[in-house]
Design brief:
The structure is a single chain. The protein is an alpha/beta fold and 234 residues long. It contains eight helices and nine strands. Helix content is 39%, strand content 19%.
Length: 234
């Protein structure tokens, strides 16, 4: 069975992505605070058939990336695909920014995904291995794209950096690895309450899942290095 790593699998969106891929892949799921809740959801949804699902509890802020890699190598020495993300959408006001906060947001949203991308590429040995990076629309649509949300400057800078990482990664990763970005608009996810006024612009969760599955199955070389906009915005 093909093996897939998912970062932040306990998040509201990512847990449903993981569920949709269970059975098709052996899953290695990184989680942190929501590991227990994720384990219960997987057990109930998969009716206890979770032998091909492995949870790794890991705090990037406290333990970095390399120690996660060591935990992964205890489970496998190869991967076929990975899904990573920017874990923090900070909304701190400009006047409230501190050096420590800027460091934390940019570390989690740039240093961790970039370092993880490099590490994951070393697990991928098959032709057409894929890494999908989930990001946001702000580098494409601007800081006011999400009605009701006010991303901080560190968040905006991080998102712009990750878009650049996706576009340039093909010049740095091994030739068999392809990197794809998906910039998401509002997604209607079960258990997640959307701000008023955005439901008409939100996408059904299944739309996101279908695109992820298509990229994982086809791994289109011509789209490697692209950031695909997936939103209800014109």
């Amino acid at each position: 069975m093909r093996k897939l790593f998912i970062m932040g699998a306990s998040g509201k969106l990512m847990r449903h992505v993981a569920l949709s891929l269970a059975g098709e892949y052996e899953l290695i799921l990184q989680c942190n605070r929501g590991c227990d809740e994720l384990a219960k959801l997987l057990s109930s949804s998969l009716r206890g058939e979770v032998s091909d699902v492995h949870l790794i509890k890991h705090d990037f802020l406290g333990k970095g990336v390399e120690s996660l890699v060591a935990k992964m190598r205890a489970l496998t020495n190869s991967l076929d695909a990975s899904i990573i993300m920017e874990p923090v959408f900070d909304q701190s006001r400009f006047q409230d920014l501190s050096e420590e906060l800027v460091k934390e947001v940019t570390y989690l949203n740039v240093v961790v995904p970039l370092t993880l991308l490099r590490a994951l590429a070393s697990f991928m040995r098959g032709e057409g291995s894929s890494i999908i990076v989930l990001t946001d629309l702000t580098p494409i649509k601007g800081s006011k794209v999400y009605e009701g949300l006010t991303p901080s400057l560190p968040t905006l800078a991080s998102s712009a950096a990750i878009h650049t990482v996706v576009r340039e990664a093909k010049n740095h990763v091994p030739a068999n690895v392809r990197v794809f970005g998906i910039a998401l608009g509002w997604v209607d996810v079960p258990s997640k309450k959307l701000p008023e006024g955005v439901l008409k612009k939100s996408m059904n969760l299944e739309v996101v899942v279908r695109l992820i599955k298509r990229i994982l199955s086809e791994c289109p070389q011509e789209l490697s290095g692209s950031v695909i906009e997936l939103s209800g915005y014109l």
